[in-house]
Amino acid sequence: MDSTATPSPPPPALDRIRVGSAPDSWGVWFADDPAQVPWRRFLDEVSEAGYAWIELGPYGYLPTDPDLLLEETGSRGLRVSAGTVFTALHRGPAVWEETWEQVSRVAGLARATGAGHLVVIPSFWRDDRTAEVIESHELTAEQWRHLASGMERLAREVLDVYGMTIAVHPHADTHIDTEAHVERFLDATDPALVHLCLDTGHYAYCGGDSVKLIKTYGERIGYLHLKQVDPAVLAGVVERGTPFGPAVAQGVMCEPPTGVPALEPVLTAAQGLGVDLFAIVEQDMYPCPPGKPLPIARRTRAFLRSCGA
């Protein structure tokens, strides 16, 4: 070994990026499912893996009593960054009351535990477990108008009532998925109200380029989910038209840094926005053996530290 060789410079400090993880990375998709790890084990292990921030996951998985949840997270050095809701606002005003009832539960708990963000996922056009086609995968012009106006209304109400911002999550098998759909949605909504939760894995799954999106619509990025896709598995998923749920069971979402997109350029581009951003690790792997998540979580946290986060 050449002792005179110049050592590699350390990675740039990503001091605007706050890294966390979520129940999703422990195989949790539902409030109550015997295939999932118990919530106390999740909290123990996410803390042990080196994360300081978590999301609520599906409402009802973690305690819904704010005092109990604060006690359980605080004792483990954890804080809550966001809650998550699923919406079908493209169906128009008729679904508003049902939507707001769900939002109120989740946003109320998230706010009570100190979170400032609500991640909003559009409804699926096909069932992510049974593959049943629920509705057309393309929205009509009227449905696009309902979607845009509904998200703006939701953003105003969540801000006014809870003091939180929404971050709309493009997601596989929903109506906001591909680059074209994401751009249409962003162009149709008020930048001051509606922000985006860029999920690097879902965007790659649907053919999008996360770095390009950050550079083009940087002012709209309000939140990040970090995950990667296995290109070989994805090719088979696309070829066979496999729904998202079975694709996850096949391992389409993989452990960083083995997949795409490369996360270092994404994090660097996000840091370049000059704003504080949460970057929450979400490696979809429902269902999974209970002993699988923790070693992956440890390795992923170490990898992100090597990137400067």
Describe the model:
This protein has 309 residues and is an alpha/beta fold. It has a single domain (21-306), classed as TIM Barrel. The chain has helices at 39-48, 66-74, 96-112, 141-162, 179-188, 200-205, 210-216, 231-240, 244-249, 263-271, 293-306, and strands at residues 17-21, 53-55, 79-87, 117-122, 165-168, 195-199, 221-226, 228-229, 253-254, 277-281. An eight-stranded parallel sheet has the order 1-10-7-6-5-4-3-2. Helix 7 (210-216) packs parallel to helix 10. The radius of gyration is 19 Å and the shape is globular. It comes from Streptomyces triculaminicus. This is TIM barrel protein. It holds the Pfam family AP_endonuc_2. Residues 43-305 form the Xylose isomerase-like TIM barrel domain.
Q: Quick recap of the structure?
A:
By secondary structure, this protein is an alpha/beta fold.
How do the strands line up in the largest sheet? 1-10-7-6-5-4-3-2
Q: Distance between the terminal alpha carbons, to the nearest Å? A: 30 Å
Largest sheet properties: 8 strands, parallel
By CATH, the topology is TIM Barrel
| Helix vs. strand class | alpha/beta
CATH architectural category: Alpha-Beta Barrel
Poorly predicted ranges (pLDDT <50, ≥5 residues)? none
The proportion of residues in beta strands is 15-25%
Helix content: 25-40%
| Quaternary | single chain
**What's the overall geometry?**
globular
Mean pLDDT: 95
Number of helices: 11
Q: Which H/E pattern describes the elements?
A: EHEHEHEHEHEHHEEHHEHEH
Q: How many structural domains can be distinguished in the coordinates? A: 1
Q: What's the level 1 CATH class? A: Alpha Beta
CATH homologous superfamily caption: Divalent-metal-dependent TIM barrel enzymes
Number of strands: 10
Radius of gyration: 19 Å
InterPro entries: IolE/XylAMocC-like (IPR050312), Xyl_isomerase-like_sf (IPR036237), Xyl_isomerase-like_TIM-brl (IPR013022)
Domain Xylose isomerase-like TIM barrel: 43-305
Protein name: TIM barrel protein
